[in-house]
Amino acid sequence: MPFEFFSATDTGRARNNNEDSVAIDIASSLVVLADGMGGYNAGEVASQMATSFISAELGRWLTEAASNATDADVRRAMDICVDNANRAIFNAASTNPQYAGMGTTLVVGVFREGRLLLGHVGDSRGYRLRAGKFMRITHDHSLLQEQIDAGLITEEQAAFSSNKNLVTRAVGVEDSVMLESHLHELLPGDLVLLCSDGLSDMLDDEHIGQVLQSSEDIEVLAQALIAAANEAGGKDNIAVILARVQGETGAARSWWPFKR
């Protein structure tokens, strides 16, 4: 597949353990990122359960069915796999007192020719850089985002809010969860970033976009993002996944629209 992937995580400067988890399945062009929450070690357990379960189950399905699967089929498979992971985490939290209340945010992406199927839960994010234009392609499931949407506060005020990290949707917290998923066009040269709030809370979107234009090497870019977040305080774990669509930037060909 014409994609290049790289991932990295970092504990940051304020935490002793890392509750962020990432997984990439190259064979199926599948990426998964999770940011866990809960008591001692519980968040780490939840995020690792989510990434390992979804990458294995969805990756296997994609490898076996992708050639004949429509985008609607893939979205259904994403929903089913996330639901199964949610139930596994919820059941583990319900039956093990040390894991009570654990859960995780989630971003999962399936890259196909000319498009990205992206699903998310919570406040971990997806972004796209295309020809110098950087934009967020997910919408946080958080109390802060609800306040912004309702016009109660501005984006600028939100940067200083004490309500950061209060998510309204998470995997494993209840016996069911709704994955929000969208279809995005991809063009040669596009760069997609998935990240935990350990990055987006430390750096605003403009700063992230500037860093992503500082090199053509996605490994260098991932490490630069982590370094910038740590320089800004590193108050949380940091996780990033970068995916570049190979091919000449700005190529005229587009696969849009396509069969869904």
Describe this protein's structure.
The protein is of the alpha+beta class and 260 residues long. The protein has a single domain, classed as Phosphatase 2c, domain 1 (4-Layer Sandwich). Helix content is 33%, strand content 26%. The chain has a five-stranded antiparallel beta sheet. A hairpin with a 2-residue loop joins strand 6 and strand 7. It is globular.
**Could you give the count of β-strands?**
10
Q: Report helical residue fraction.
A: 25-40%
- Kindly report how far apart the N and C termini lie: 19 Å
As for the CATH topology, it is: Phosphatase 2c, domain 1
Report on the biggest sheet.
5 strands, antiparallel
Low-confidence stretches: 251-260
Q: Give the CATH class.
A: Alpha Beta
If classified by CATH, what would the architecture be?
A: 4-Layer Sandwich
Q: What is the topology, as strand order, of the major beta sheet?
A: 1-10-9-6-7
Mean pLDDT: 91
Describe the secondary structure blueprint for this structure.
Layout: E1 3-10, E2 20-25, E3 30-37, H1 42-65, H2 71-95, E4 103-112, E5 115-121, E6 125-130, E7 133-136, H3 143-149, H4 155-158, E8 180-185, E9 191-195, H5 197-200, H6 205-212, H7 218-231, E10 238-245
Antiparallel strand pairs: 1-10, 2-3, 3-4, 4-5, 5-8, 6-7, 6-9, 9-10
Helix pairs in contact: 1-2
